[in-house]
From TrEMBL:
Pfam families: DZF_N (PF07528). PANTHER family: INTERLEUKIN ENHANCER-BINDING FACTOR, INTERLEUKIN ENHANCER-BINDING FACTOR 2. Keywords: Activator, DNA-binding, Transcription, Transcription regulation. Transmembrane segments: none annotated. One of its GO terms (cellular component) is catalytic step 2 spliceosome. The keyword Transcription applies. This is Interleukin enhancer-binding factor 2. It comes from Myotis davidii. GO terms for molecular function: DNA binding; double-stranded RNA binding. InterPro entries: DZF_dom, DZF_dom_N, ILF2, NT_sf. It comes from the Eukaryota. One of its GO terms (biological process) is positive regulation of DNA-templated transcription.
């Protein structure tokens, strides 16, 4: 024999309505998903080069936390070589990354642009800026004419 309820059963309809809405708010939209996909591809390529080239790759936090600006299809990835980043080394890294991306997805049109901070790689719907820096002990040794 069961005891009768003291108070009525709670209505779960508000919780059932709020749960899908919260799930939709937390899931990345298509814009964020395309940026994250490109960042992940580039980070995987650079991570595979890490053992050969002594590179360290860091993805900036606003990509992970989903706080990018709407309509701003650009992400930043920081690459820290343990050697001085010469212009030739940056160009070689850029070409290696783009060739690896082309091998992974030959149907995509990859564009690249070199600038004073590193380079940018763009797909049809997202751009990733690869920012090149160096370890602190090398900062005094940098020559603006030789190094990126």
């Amino acid at each position: 024999m069961a005891f009768p309820r003291v108070k009525p059963a709670p209505d779960g309809s508000s919780f059932s309505e709020a749960l899908p809405k919260r799930n939709q708010d937390l899931a990345p939209n298509s814009e964020q998903a395309s940026i994250l996909s490109l960042v992940t591809k580039i980070k995987n390529v650079i991570d595979s080069l890490w053992l050969q080239e002594h590179l360290k790759c860091k993805r900036l936090d606003y990509i992970k936390k989903g706080t990018t600006t709407t309509g701003h299809h650009v992400a930043d990835v920081v690459v820290i070589p343990k050697i001085l980043p010469t212009l030739e080394a940056v160009a070689a890294l850029r070409n290696t990354v783009v060739e690896s991306l082309r091998a992974q997805d030959p149907s995509e049109v990859w564009r690249m642009l070199t600038n004073e901070t590193g380079f940018e790689i763009s797909s049809s719907d997202a751009t990733v800026k690869i920012l090149i820096t160096t370890v602190p002990p090398n900062l005094r040794k940098l020559d603006p004419e030789l190094h990126c």
